[in-house]
TrEMBL record:
The keyword Membrane applies. The chain crosses the membrane at residues 21-39, 45-63, 75-100, 175-197, 239-272, 325-350. It is a multi-pass membrane protein. PANTHER family: PERMEASE PERM-RELATED, TRANSMEMBRANE PROTEIN. It comes from Deinococcus aetherius. This is AI-2E family transporter.
Length: 374
C-alpha cells in the first residue's frame, strides 16, 4: 500500500490557536511593543553600532581596493585608522584656529553693522533726494534683520566655541570622565574595526535574520540604499571640502579677515546642498564693508563662483551617477525637509528623495500598475 497517501497529522494546540488571524495580529503587536521598549532602553547602543557600521561602510571601498592590490585586510584597516587619526588631528588643529577666528569674527560684527547702518542712511538719503518714495522703514527693517542674525549667531556659537577652547571647561571634564564622550568614541572605534575586518561576514549574518525567500529582495533593496545614500554622503563630503577650501583661499587672497572661519562655515553647512555659500556670504560681506564696494564685489564673485562650480560641475559630476536629481528637485526636497523636520530634515531630504527615485525606477515603473493602469 505504498501508494496510499498518509493522513495529515493532527494540529497541536499551538498550531490550532495560531490559525486565528486575531491571535497572529495580537502576537505581532505584542512583539512590536516589546521591541519598541527594548529599543528605548538600548537606543544608545544601537546608535553606536549604526555609526560604526557607517564608518565601515564608507571605508569598505578603500579596503576592497587595497585588497585588489594584494594588501591584506588587517593591514588595510590599519592604514584606514592612520588616515582617520590624521584627519581627526588635522580637524582638531583646524577647529582650534577656526574657533578663535570665529569668536573674533562675531565680536567684530556689531561694528560692521554700525557701518552698514551709516551706508544705508547715505544710500536712502541719496535715493530720496532723487524722488524715490516708499523707503520709509526699509532701512530700519534691514538693520534689524542683520542685527537679529548676528545676535542669534552669538548666542548659539560663542559659548560653545569658548568651551572648546577652554581646556578646563565642561567639554574637557566630560572627555576624561568615565562613560563620557571619550569612552563612547572608543567603543565606536572598536566596533568599526571589527566591522571593517569582517564586513562581508557581518553582512551575511545580518542577512540571515530574514527568511530565505526574502533575502534576494533584501540584498537588492540594500544595494539601492547604498547607491542613493552612501554615494550621496561620500560625494557631498567631497563637495563640502572643496567649497570650504575654495572660500578660504579666495577670501585670503583678497584680504578678508577670519577667512578660515568663514570657509569652515561655508563648507560645514554645504553638507546641505546650496546652503554653505548663502550662510558664509553674510559675515564675509560685513567684514568687507569697511574696505568699500570693490572688495564687497570680489566677495560676491567668490561665493557666486563657488556656487556655480558646485552646481554646474562638481554636483553633476560627483552625484549624477548616484542621485541624478534635477536642481529644482533638490531645492524643493530641502525646503520640504526643513518645513517638516528642521535642519535634520534638510540633511536627509536629498538622499531620501534619491532613494525614492531609485525605488520608483526599479519597482513601480516596470510594474503592471504603471504600464497597464490600476
Amino acid at each position: 500500500m505504498g501508494g496510499m497517501i498518509a493522513p495529515p497529522k493532527p494540529l497541536n494546540a499551538f498550531q490550532y490557536v495560531w490559525r486565528s488571524p486575531w491571535v497572529r495580529a495580537a502576537a505581532f503587536l505584542i512583539a512590536f511593543y516589546v521591541a519598541y521598549r527594548l529599543l528605548g532602553r538600548v537606543g544608545s547602543v544601537v546608535v553606536d553600532f549604526a555609526v560604526a557600521f557607517l564608518i565601515a561602510y564608507l571605508a569598505n571601498p578603500l579596503l576592497n581596493w587595497l585588497e585588489r592590490g594584494r594588501v591584506k585586510r588587517g593591514l588595510g584597516v590599519f592604514f584606514v585608522l592612520l588616515i582617520f587619526a590624521g584627519v581627526f588631528a588635522l580637524a582638531g588643529a583646524l577647529l582650534i584656529t577656526v574657533s578663535a577666528q570665529f569668536i573674533e569674527l562675531l565680536g567684530s560684527l556689531p561694528a560692521q553693522i554700525e557701518r552698514l547702518s551709516v551706508l544705508l542712511d547715505r544710500s536712502f538719503t541719496w535715493l530720496g533726494e532723487r524722488g524715490v518714495t516708499g523707503l520709509d522703514g526699509v532701512r530700519e527693517r534691514l538693520t534689524e534683520t542683520v542685527q537679529t542674525y548676528v545676535q542669534n549667531l552669538g548666542q548659539n556659537f560663542i559659548p560653545i566655541l569658548q568651551n572648546v577652547l577652554n581646556s578646563t571647561g565642561t567639554l574637557f571634564s566630560r572627555l576624561v570622565s568615565i562613560g563620557g564622550i571619550l569612552g563612547q568614541v572608543l567603543l565606536i572605534l572598536l566596533l568599526s574595526v571589527y566591522l571593517m575586518l569582517d564586513y562581508s561576514r557581518v553582512n551575511a549574518a545580518l542577512l540571515r535574520f530574514f527568511p530565505r525567500p526574502w533575502q534576494p529582495k533584501v540584498l537588492e533593496f540594500t544595494g539601492l540604499v547604498g547607491t542613493a545614500v552612501g554615494g550621496y554622503v561620500r560625494g557631498q563630503l567631497l563637495i563640502a571640502l572643496f567649497i570650504g577650501v575654495f572660500v578660504w583661499l579666495g577670501l585670503t587672497l583678497i584680504g578678508i579677515p577670519s577667512a578660515a572661519a568663514i570657509g569652515f562655515l561655508a563648507g560645514a553647512f554645504n553638507i546641505v546642498p546650496y546652503l554653505g555659500p548663502i550662510i558664509g556670504a553674510t559675515p564675509a560681506l560685513l567684514l568687507a564693508l569697511p574696505s568699500g564696494w570693490v572688495k564687497m564685489l570680489l566677495v560676491v564673485v567668490i561665493f557666486v563662483a563657488a556656487n556655480q562650480i558646485e552646481g554646474n560641475f562638481l554636483s553633476p559630476y560627483i552625484l549624477s551617477r548616484t542621485t541624478d536629481l534635477h536642481p529644482i528637485t533638490v531645492l524643493v526636497a530641502i525646503l520640504v525637509g526643513v518645513a517638516l523636520f528642521g535642519f535634520a530634515g534638510a540633511l536627509l531630504a536629498v538622499p531620501t528623495v534619491a532613494l525614492g527615485k531609485l525605488l520608483l525606477e526599479k519597482y513601480y515603473y516596470p510594474s503592471r500598475v504603471y504600464t497597464e493602469g490600476p
